[in-house]
Amino acid sequence: MIATLLRVGWTNLKRDRVAQALTFVLPVVFFSIFASVFGNQGNNGTARIRVAVVDEDGSELSRRIAAGLAQEKGLRVRTTVDAEGKGATLDRAAAERLVREGDAPVAVVLPKGLGAAAATFGNSGNAPRVQLLADVSDRISPQMVFGLFQKVAMTSAPDILMDAGALTPEQRSAVNAWLPRLKPGQPDAVNATRAAGGPFGIGIDTVDVMRAGRQESLISFYAAGIGVMFLLFSSSGAGGSLLEEVDSGTFDRLLSTR
Asked: Which CATH number fits domain 49-211: 2.30.130, 1.10.287, 3.30.460, 3.40.1710?
């Protein structure tokens, strides 16, 4: 019985060219498409994030932070209007325009007074806060830049942060003897930075420049989405009814009555 069914099925398959294509050709085509799309992902490294850096402060601290960001392998830092490093230095408006136009997913703005307020980091609510101008629809880039900035802030200028800290006279005496080892390029700079980075922190605010000045409501957003969804459901239902009327001849009779 089973042999008979297999023979009948094979006979029908040999006669039907469409069935042969669906059985043998279509799987190969699907496999080839997905292999070409996803096959090279493991060979490519993570793309470098384009970041615009605006130094409004011009202090030693802000210059070291900007230089530290430029040295990060995961970032491609841009500080001028021209992408090739030529032209005027970026300001906040130009950096925001780059983010809005999609030329850079994130812009880092180092505000004026950042270096002078180093002593109040973590202790004063009036200290200048670094701003990340970002398109938050990109869920990855702002978070990566946020983490790398915190790392660079602690490793690029540990001597400045330690020297600016509020210390007792005894602590100040010990720190003065230790500060030369904290400067970048010294043998103990890495280990010393880890010890110095704890008490200090630079405030960072993420600003969604794509929604600046707007008051979008999630309720209206989801209401519009649900409305479109029900419109599609209604259209598909009406289309199915129309096809049934065409098959039954009702549609032709309705047209003939005009």
From this structure: 3.40.1710
